[in-house]
């Protein structure tokens, strides 16, 4: 055919209604005979018809669109989250729209409004602490929602995350057993995300329980210069002590690693532990110890929870916590 094939064409050629074709496209085969199903299938193959999201939702209350809002799309964790989400959504015949908030409330506002205007059925969101007002707006629009990585503690909803607090706490306990006596944390502002709060709390609680002190530097992804990190490390690391440097933000780990190398801090006597970054930490010299999250599995689980709720198969809030694993490498004793 020279012109674009429409759902009306498929209905006419298969001698059925547009509603029946729509049921077929949305895999609702129980409402049609085997003969009708085969007839529609053959016509679609012969015409090369590719259904649009709009066509699939003509006779459905759902658009089969999901909005995904990521805090920082540039890191490996976010890439794996999205990959997990898309694996599941493809299986369930949903499409994904992705936005990168950069942890900025104005960006959150922009993406949420645009995604609502596009008619998404629900959201998978990495929320900032300012997300509460958007959460209410989404609920007023009767849209479904799943948080991942972070949560709003006073807001009961669906969420998927990892055991950040326990993973960091256990890492610090093991580091003390390995012989580290001095401790440093270089982190983004913990107050912006519940994930950061949990990681910082795991670090602090593990040290305070055994009467260890620590030094802390708060950095900003956009504004902090390498020289600031170098100066801080040079001032707070005693090269004759076994010092552990903990970097709970994956985007900051390479900055700290570079600063330590420039200062010629001998690893593993001055140890370094980060989060994720497995795309380069396995090949650096020395290789770097990291706490690794099962991000791909998190993404799949978040998508499955959301789609089950959209389709009415989930009748109460669901929460899922995945375990992190510590991959000890050459940067630690």
What does this structure look like?
- It is a single chain.
- This protein has 333 residues and is an alpha/beta fold.
- Helix content is 44%, strand content 18%.
- The protein has helices at 7-13, 18-25, 34-47, 53-56, 76-91, 105-117, 132-140, 164-177, 194-209, 226-236, 250-262, 278-281, 295-310, and strands at residues 65-70, 95-100, 122-125, 144-148, 158-162, 182-188, 215-219, 243-246, 270-275, 289-292, 319-322, 325-327.
- The strands form 2 sheets. It has a 6-stranded parallel sheet with strand order 2-1-3-4-5-11, sandwiched between helices. Strands 7-6-8-9-10-12 form a 6-stranded mixed sheet, sandwiched between helices.
- Strand 6 (182-188), helix 9 (194-209) and strand 7 form a beta-alpha-beta unit.
- Helix 8 packs parallel to helix 9 (194-209).
- The longest helix is centred in the first third of the chain and has 16 residues, at 76-91.
- It is elongated, with a radius of gyration of 25 Å.
- The termini are far apart.
- The mean pLDDT is 89.
């Amino acid at each position: 055919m020279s012109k674009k094939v429409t759902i009306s064409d498929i209905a006419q050629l298969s001698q059925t209604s547009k509603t029946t074709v729509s049921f077929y496209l949305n895999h609702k085969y129980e409402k049609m005979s085997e003969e009708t199903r085969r007839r529609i299938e053959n016509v679609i193959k012969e015409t090369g018809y590719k259904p649009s999201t709009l066509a699939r939702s003509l006779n459905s209350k759902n658009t089969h669109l999901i909005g995904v809002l990521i805090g920082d799309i540039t890191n490996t964790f976010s890439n794996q989250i999205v990959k997990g989400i898309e694996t599941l959504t493809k299986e369930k015949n949903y499409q994904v729209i992705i936005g990168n908030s950069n942890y900025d409330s104005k960006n959150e506002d922009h993406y949420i409004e645009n995604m609502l205007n596009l008619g998404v059925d629900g959201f998978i969101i990495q929320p900032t602490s300012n997300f509460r007002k958007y959460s209410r707006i989404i609920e007023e629009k009767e849209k479904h929602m799943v948080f991942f990585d972070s949560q709003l503690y006073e807001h009961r909803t669906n969420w998927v995350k990892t055991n950040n607090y326990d993973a960091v706490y256990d890492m610090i306990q093991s580091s003390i057993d390995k012989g580290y006596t001095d401790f440093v944390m270089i982190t983004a502002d913990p107050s912006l995300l519940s994930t950061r709060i949990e990681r910082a709390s795991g670090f602090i609680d593990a040290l305070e329980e055994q009467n260890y002190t620590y030094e802390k530097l708060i950095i900003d992804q956009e504004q902090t210069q390498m020289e600031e990190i170098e100066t801080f490390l040079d001032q707070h690391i005693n090269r004759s002590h076994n010092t552990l440097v903990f970097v709970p933000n994956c985007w900051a780990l390479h900055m700290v690693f570079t600063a330590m190398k420039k200062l010629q801090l001998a690893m593993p006597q001055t140890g370094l532990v980060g989060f994720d970054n497995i795309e380069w930490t396995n090949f650096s010299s020395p290789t770097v110890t990291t706490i690794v999250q099962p991000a791909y599995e998190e993404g799949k689980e978040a998508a499955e929870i959301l789609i089950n709720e959209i389709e009415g198969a989930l009748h109460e809030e669901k929460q899922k916590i995945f375990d992190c694993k510590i991959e000890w490498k050459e940067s630690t004793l």
